[in-house]
Design goal:
Length: about 290
C-alpha cells in the first residue's frame, strides 16, 4: 500500500468529519472539502468547513510532523501561509494542524499580529512520522480529537465560547512545547533503540533514572516507555534551556557537552547530552 501523503490524509479527514456531522445533526456544519481555491493565485486550502447555509466558516493547513514546516503547528511559515489563505478566502477562523496538535486561530483582529492572538489548542496524538498513521490507536485518537474540535468550534462560532485568553508566558510555553514535540519523540525513539541494544548504556541510564531522578525502574513495558519519555523530555528541555541561556548571553560559542564524573554525588550528577543522527538529543553517561 502506498505511503499516505498530506493530500490523502486531508481527504480521509474530510470523510471522517462528514461522518461525525452525520452522527451529530445538532452541529451547525454541512460539509468539508479539500483543495478548495484560496483566492490567492493558484493556492488552495488543504481543508475547508462549511455551515448549513453553504458559507465557508473555516479553512486550514495540514502538515505531517516529519514534513518540512510540520514540526510545529505554530511555526511562522505554516501559520503565515494558513492566515494568508484564510484572509483571502474571507473566513473568520483558520487552523493549523500537524497531526499531533491542532490550533484554531482568529483571522481578523485589529492591532494584534497573529503571533500575539488568542488560540484554541488541541492535543490529537503523538507520532514521529507518517508511517504511524495507520495504527488503529492513532486513528482512534484522531477521530476523537476531531469530534471534540467540531463541538468546540461550533460553540465558538455560535458565541457560546471564545478563544481562550492566555498570559504571554503561558503562550510562550505552549508554543515552545509544540516546537519540542517532534525532537522529543525522535529522542525517545533513539533512546528506546539504543536501550534495547546497548547493555552498558541501559545500565547507565537506569542508574541515572533511579539514583539521580528517583524514578521507579522496572522491566514492565509501560513503565519503561514512560521513563524513556521522561528522559527524552528532560534532555530536550535541558538542551533548549542551555541554548536560550547562550542566546541571552549573546555568545557565539557552541554549547559544550554535558558530562559527569563517576564520583559525582547525587545532587551534582547530571546526564550528558549528545546528538545522534541529525536531530535527536540522546542521554549517555561518560566517565573521565
Amino acid at each position: 500500500m502506498p505511503e499516505m501523503n498530506e493530500w490523502t490524509f486531508s481527504s480521509e479527514a474530510k470523510k471522517l468529519i462528514e461522518r461525525i456531522l452525520a452522527e451529530n445533526p445538532s452541529l451547525p456544519f454541512s460539509e468539508a472539502r479539500v483543495e478548495e481555491g484560496a483566492g490567492v493565485g493558484r493556492k488552495r486550502n488543504d481543508l475547508t468547513l462549511y455551515d448549513r447555509d453553504g458559507r465557508c466558516v473555516l479553512t486550514g493547513e495540514v502538515r505531517f510532523p516529519d514534513s518540512p514546516g510540520g514540526q510545529s503547528p505554530c511555526s511562522d511559515a505554516l501559520v503565515g501561509n494558513a492566515f494568508e489563505k484564510a484572509n483571502a478566502t474571507g473566513v473568520e477562523y483558520f487552523f493549523t494542524w500537524n497531526v499531533n496538535q491542532l490550533y484554531l486561530w482568529r483571522t481578523f483582529e485589529a492591532g494584534r499580529p497573529v503571533s500575539e492572538r488568542d488560540f484554541e489548542h488541541l492535543n490529537v496524538t503523538s507520532i514521529a512520522n507518517r508511517g504511524e498513521l495507520k495504527h488503529p490507536l492513532v486513528q482512534g485518537e484522531i477521530e476523537g480529537a476531531l469530534r471534540k474540535f467540531l463541538h468546540t468550534f461550533a460553540r465558538i462560532l455560535e458565541g457560546a465560547e471564545t478563544l481562550p485568553s492566555r498570559p504571554l508566558d503561558e503562550k510562550f510555553i505552549r508554543v515552545l512545547e509544540s516546537a519540542l514535540e517532534l525532537p522529543i519523540l525522535q529522542t525517545q525513539s533513539a533512546l528506546a533503540a539504543r536501550y534495547s541494544k546497548d547493555r552498558k548504556f541501559a545500565r547507565d541510564l537506569d542508574s541515572w533514572m533511579r539514583d539521580a531522578q528517583g524514578w521507579l525502574i522496572s522491566t514492565d513495558p509501560q513503565i519503561l516507555r514512560d521513563n524513556l519519555e521522561r528522559a527524552a523530555k528532560f534532555s530536550c528541555y535541558v538542551l533548549v534551556n542551555k541554548i536560550v541561556f547562550h542566546q541571552a548571553r549573546g555568545s557565539a560559542k557552541p554549547c559544550k557537552r554535558f558530562s559527569m564524573r563517576p564520583s559525582a554525588s547525587r545532587a551534582t550528577t547530571r546526564p550528558s547530552l549528545t546528538a545522534i543522527s541529525e536531530t535527536p538529543c540522546l542521554f549517555w553517561m561518560t566517565a573521565w
